[in-house]
């Protein structure tokens, strides 16, 4: 079932229920009023008959009968019976005994003084009237032809009105639901034409006012993000292939060189050492690519545990100095911490990689191969700053240095793949921290890691 028919159906159901309830209430109220009015008329008739019969001496039973039968206001099938205190019929407006009465009925009238009952299609009112010391029972019955025909007319009008009203509601419901949903159908058609190859396409945002326009605006925002993600993915893959091809080509040419002629053991050893270096570079590159390609949080491999940041820093320092003994790493505390001040929840292996990378960059890109590491803490963060006095980074390149494979123009003479900082940022974000940079050309650089206290 389409939304259009569902909305129209619900709308019609609600209106139809209201119309039906309204019609039923109107009909029942009218029926009750008609009945009450008719009983009142019958009682009036009964009282008048008794008064004429008992109080007006000039009128005897036969005259009264004639008057009763010839009066203009005579009702259809009208009968009036008067009984004396011994329940003997002393007056009947008609000759035949069509009115149903029995001693029980009379007893009830005497008991309740007034009764209103149905006598077949007729209504019957019974009254106890005290006239000249005698308790007379009067039964008046008739068929309310006028009232019932009015009621039948009302019933017909209500039924036709109801059918017409429901028909109109269904039609209007379908029309207005269609009108309201037309923008959604339009969006639907536009969305069907969007595929991974034409993510540049956007939905019509209308006047950006109503909810459906807002849906289109939000959808376009998601499309924009998707397009960027696809673009990054594409450029990531092409950069990655390029980066992998370079060491592989080097490996191949070294192997070919080794095979060109018979070589001495020393020459072979030299070539093998080169091969080992290139293979290490390849392994490092592949590891970095793997780290970037998979979402760290999804792997389940990132286990967080309480750790001291300064301990991890010392491990990273040791590792760096083992590889590059000429580098100088000076670790300093800005504020002398208590034993637990540098405690955070994190993954020691990943954080060591971040610190190692930042120290390595600082020493690599600074002529004095020196980095100053400053640790400070406050009640929110543990802050580690890596300060160098190297070449620095231009303002135009600062925003892109965290993109995978980006290398500043000034870094081209140095070894590197452009993956380190993007990996660092990813790892710091997994720790709910921040990686910030301040730098200027020729002014050195400061990379700051903020890690929330555990
Ligand atoms: P890599 O160092 O392997 O090139 P990174 O992702 O670590 O890759 O760094 C990206 C780029 O940011 C570097 O190529 C370099 O241009 C710049 N950069 C990073 N750290 C520094 C630094 N301490 N001083 C100057 N430039 C830096």
Describe the structure.
The structure is a single chain. Helix 1 (3-54) packs antiparallel against helix 4 (145-192), helix 5 (211-259) runs antiparallel to helix 6 (265-293) and helix 9 runs antiparallel to helix 11 (420-430). It contains eleven helices and twelve strands. The chain has three domains: 3-151, 2-Layer Sandwich (Beta-Lactamase), CATH 3.30.450.20; 211-293, Helix Hairpins, CATH 1.10.287.130; 299-452, Heat Shock Protein 90 (2-Layer Sandwich). It has 454 residues and is an alpha+beta fold. A hairpin with a 5-residue loop joins strand 1 (76-83) and strand 2. It has helices spanning 3-54, 61-70, 103-112, 145-192, 211-259, 265-293, 296-299, 309-323, 348-364, 395-398, 420-430; strands spanning 76-83, 89-92, 114-119, 122-131, 134-143, 305-308, 328-333, 343-346, 370-377, 381-388, 434-439, 445-452. The site of adenosine-5'-diphosphate (ADP) has 21 residues, from helix 9 and helix 11.
């Amino acid at each position: 079932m389409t939304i259009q028919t569902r909305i129209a159906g619900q709308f019609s159901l609600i209106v139809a229920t209201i119309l039906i309830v309204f019609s039923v209430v109107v009909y029942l109220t009218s029926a009750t009023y008609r009945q009450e009015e008719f009983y009142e008329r019958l009682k009036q008739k009964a009282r008048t008959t008794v008064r004429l019969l008992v109080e007006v001496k000039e009128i005897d039973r036969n005259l009264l009968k004639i008057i009763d039968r010839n009066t203009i206001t005579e009702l259809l099938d009208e009968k009036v019976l008067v009984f004396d205190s011994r329940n003997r019929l002393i007056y009947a407006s008609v000759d035949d005994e069509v009115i149903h009465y029995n001693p029980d009925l009379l007893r009830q009238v005497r008991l309740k003084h007034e009764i209103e009952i149905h006598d077949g299609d007729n209504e019957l009112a019974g009254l106890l009237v005290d006239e000249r010391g005698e308790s007379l029972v009067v039964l008046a019955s008739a068929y309310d032809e006028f009232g019932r025909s009015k009621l039948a007319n009302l019933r017909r009008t209500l039924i036709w009105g109801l059918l017409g009203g429901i028909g109109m509601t269904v039609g209007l419901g379908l029309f207005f639901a269609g009108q309201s949903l037309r923008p959604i159908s339009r969006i639907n058609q536009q969305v069907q034409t969007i595929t991974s190859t034409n993510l540049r396409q956007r939905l019509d945002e209308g006047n950006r006012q109503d909810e459906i326009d807002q849906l289109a605006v939000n959808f376009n925002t998601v499309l924009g993000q998707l397009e960027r993600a696809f673009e990054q993915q594409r450029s990531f893959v092409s950069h990655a292939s390029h980066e992998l091809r370079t060491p592989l080509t080097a490996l191949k040419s070294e192997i070919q060189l080794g095979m060109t002629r018979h070589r001495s053991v020393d020459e072979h050893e030299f070539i093998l050492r080169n091969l080992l270096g290139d293979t290490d570079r390849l392994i490092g590159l592949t590891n970095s690519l793997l780290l970037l390609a998979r979402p760290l949080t999804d792997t389940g491999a990132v286990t967080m545990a309480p750790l001291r940041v300064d301990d991890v820093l010392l491990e990273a320092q040791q590792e760096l100095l083992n590889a590059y003994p000429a580098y100088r790493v000076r670790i300093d505390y800005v504020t002398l911490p208590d034993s637990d001040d540098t405690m955070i929840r994190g993954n020691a292996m990943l954080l060591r990689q971040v610190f190692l990378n930042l120290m390595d960059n600082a020493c690599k890109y600074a002529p004095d191969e020196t980095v100053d590491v400053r640790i400070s803490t406050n009640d929110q963060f543990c802050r580690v700053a890596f300060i160098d006095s190297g070449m620095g980074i231009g303002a135009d390149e600062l925003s892109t240095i965290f993109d995978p494979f980006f290398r500043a123009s000034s870094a081209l003479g140095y070894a590197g793949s452009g993956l380190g900082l993007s990996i660092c940022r990813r790892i710091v974000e997994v720790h709910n921290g921040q990686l910030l940079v301040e730098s200027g050309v020729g002014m050195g650089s400061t990379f700051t890691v903020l890690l929330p206290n555990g």
